[in-house]
Write a structure and sequence with these properties.
By secondary structure, the protein is an alpha/beta fold. 27% of the residues lie in helices and 22% in strands. The chain has seven helices and ten strands. The protein has helices at 20-28, 66-78, 97-106, 119-127, 158-161, 177-186, 213-223; strands at residues 4-9, 31-34, 51-54, 82-87, 111-114, 139-144, 166-171, 194-199, 207-212, 230-234. A five-stranded parallel β-sheet has the order 3-2-4-1-5, with helices on both faces. A five-stranded mixed β-sheet has the order 6-7-10-8-9. Helix 2 crosses helix 3 (97-106) and helix 6 packs antiparallel against helix 7. It is elongated. The protein starts with a strand and ends in a 7-residue tail after the last strand.
Length: 241
């Protein structure tokens, strides 16, 4: 008899931001397959006898192949185990959830999705910012800053991304934001548009950098990407003072 796979969203990495259901699934799991960004204190919620398997993917570093992750999920579930696939942020946002669900469906394995606090919401919270504003930011959009090769996606909707009345959150964009900013400004977004770099949100080495789109592009061009995961927010962000 097959077990079940629970796709558990770990939020930004602070165990106090886990949902009650997420904690329950971790406590009863036989196997936990976890991302790099979902490791650390969150993993301590798993039972002492749970098998922990690292399957994270990080840009520019050796990473588990998606096919290998899929095979592990199927293998352990077919053995009748309760499997937690622990993903950072919310598993449905740039988390390769679709590929893993497809692998389970192909083998008739049941699954559930346990939602969590998206990293974009956590970043805005620690910065003390609303993501929408009644008069100036009536739209919120999430976008990836990296395609499968790690480069800037060529098929971006630049008109939408350069909308000065939208708050935009860029995932996986540290390496490509200088080129992205050039496109945004070229498509009409003011260079002085407020921007926020939120790095290692929810961790002790958390860092927030408030600047402008042009200023952040210059900073990342000069310093290069951080070793820590980061989000970029830009648009009509509220004054943080």
């Amino acid at each position: 008899m097959n077990g079940i796979v629970s796709f558990v969203s770990s939020g930004p990495g602070d165990p106090e931001l886990l949902t009650l259901r997420a904690v329950k699934r971790l406590q009863t799991a036989d196997v936990v397959l976890f991302d790099d960004l979902a490791s650390g204190p969150v993993l301590d919620c798993a039972g002492p006898d749970a098998l922990r398997i690292a399957v994270g993917k990080r840009a520019g570093r050796p990473s588990a192949k998606q096919e290998h992750v899929n095979a592990l999920l199927v293998e352990h579930a077919q053995a009748g185990r309760q499997v937690v696939r622990l993903k950072s942020g919310d598993s449905g946002v740039f988390g390769r959830l679709e590929e893993e669900i497809a692998a389970l469906r192909a083998h008739g394995i049941p699954f559930e999705i346990v939602p969590g606090v998206p990293s974009a919401m956590a970043a805005a919270a620690v910065a003390g910012l609303p993501l929408t504003r009644r008069l100036t930011a009536r739209r919120l959009q999430f976008v990836t800053g990296a395609d499968v090769t790690g480069g800037l996606p060529a098929d971006q909707n630049w008109a939408a991304l350069a909308d000065p009345h939208a708050t935009t959150v860029v995932f996986m964009g540290q390496r490509t934001f200088p080129a992205m900013a050039e496109q945004l400004i070229g498509h009409g977004l003011p260079a002085a548009t407020p921007a926020l770099l939120a790095e290692a949100v929810g961790h002790p080495h958390q860092r927030l950098v408030r600047t402008t789109v042009a200023g952040l592009a210059a900073l990342l061009q000069a310093e290069g990407p951080s070793a820590h995961p980061a989000l970029i927010l830009y648009g009509p962000l509220a004054d943080s003072n």
